[in-house]
Design a protein that fits this description.
The structure is a homodimer of 155-residue chains. Chain A has helices at 18-46, 50-60, 68-75, 79-91, 110-132, 137-151; strands at 66-67, 95-100, 103-108. By secondary structure, chain A is mainly alpha-helical. The first copy, chain A, is globular. Chain A starts with 17 loop residues before the first helix and ends with a helix. The first copy, chain A, binds a DNA duplex (30 and 30 nucleotides) through helix 4.
DNA sequence: TATCGATTGTTGACATATCTACATTCTAGG
DNA sequence: CCTAGAATGTAGATATGTCAACAATCGATA
């Protein structure tokens, strides 16, 4: 690593401190590796992608259908991305869409419901192994609260 | 930091507890929103994508070139993804590659070095606003350590 | 109730990521 | 030296995500 850079932490604090930059890249790196690991486990066992699983699990939590805009908000996706992904999942018979006014309700098909029962324990095991095990229960709670502070504020 | 007490897991332990599932989705949601926000800020100001910036910053930290495999490891990417992305960045004149045995060294071009000076403060401001500000300095350190536990273990 | 702006969703072109298969170089053991 | 397996990269096909433009509905208000 290079060390001799003009790093003086001006009072203006234009650039990031070491701690700050490290937090950012630690976050990205953890996210990339976590996704790769869980995704590998799940795909090997079920053939489903990570986004597929995210949609299925969130959609399954609400009986009778979720509006797309709410689903997008839960996932942190934008509506374009969700629309494209739902089209793909729909063509594979996993979900169905019902137009309700200007909105669209998403629900699982029979096939989708069947698939999710298979996926859930596999996904749970992967999450537990790769994300939960490194932490104590109280750390799990603390970490969740910290992460929610990132997504909640409209900042 | 603290000792790794391990989970008390119910005998079944097939599925995730509420805390556990919430941690997982809080993580994914925070990641999606953080990436979207920072990426929007940076793209609006520079036209560079989030992966572009990640590669530029990591490559700039090492003088004289980084081996692709190491860059991939720092980023948490797999080598295929990095190879494709570097090809695109190379064709835009941002980086250059030199073959060294079976490996490849990546370094910034003049244009890449010029670009990164423009990007860095903008990126720093975006990271500060969206990731740092919600936390105290000690939380920043704690959070970084927690995230590193996710990526470090080969688990 | 007419109409304008905001909300919700889709589409197509393009950018990025993944998967499978392959080529080259490195390394350790005969 | 050889040579088999590991490590490093690349290529093309496919899957996924983003951007800009558009269409339909909602909702407030004049």
């Amino acid at each position: 690593m290079s060390t001799i850079d003009s790093r003086v932490e001006p009072a203006t604090a234009e650039l990031l401190s070491d701690d700050e930059r490290q937090l950012y890249f630690a976050f990205k790196r953890a996210q990339e590796m976590l996704r790769a690991r869980i995704s590998d486990d799940v795909r090997a066992a079920t053939g489903l992608s990570d986004p597929d699983v995210a949609v299925l699990i969130h959609a399954a939590e609400v009986d009778g259908g979720v509006r797309q805009s709410e689903l997008a908000s839960l996932l942190g996706w934008d509506r374009t991305r969700l629309s494209h992904h739902l089209s793909r999942m729909q063509s594979r018979g996993l979900i169905e869409r019902t137009k309700v006014g200007s909105a669209v309700e998403v629900s699982l098909t029979e096939a989708g419901l069947a698939v999710i029962d298979v996926v859930r324990p596999i996904h749970a095991a992967a999450v537990r192994r790769h994300l939960i095990e490194p932490f104590t229960p109280s750390q799990v709670v603390y970490l969740r609260e910290a992460l929610e502070r990132i997504s909640e504020p409209g900042a």
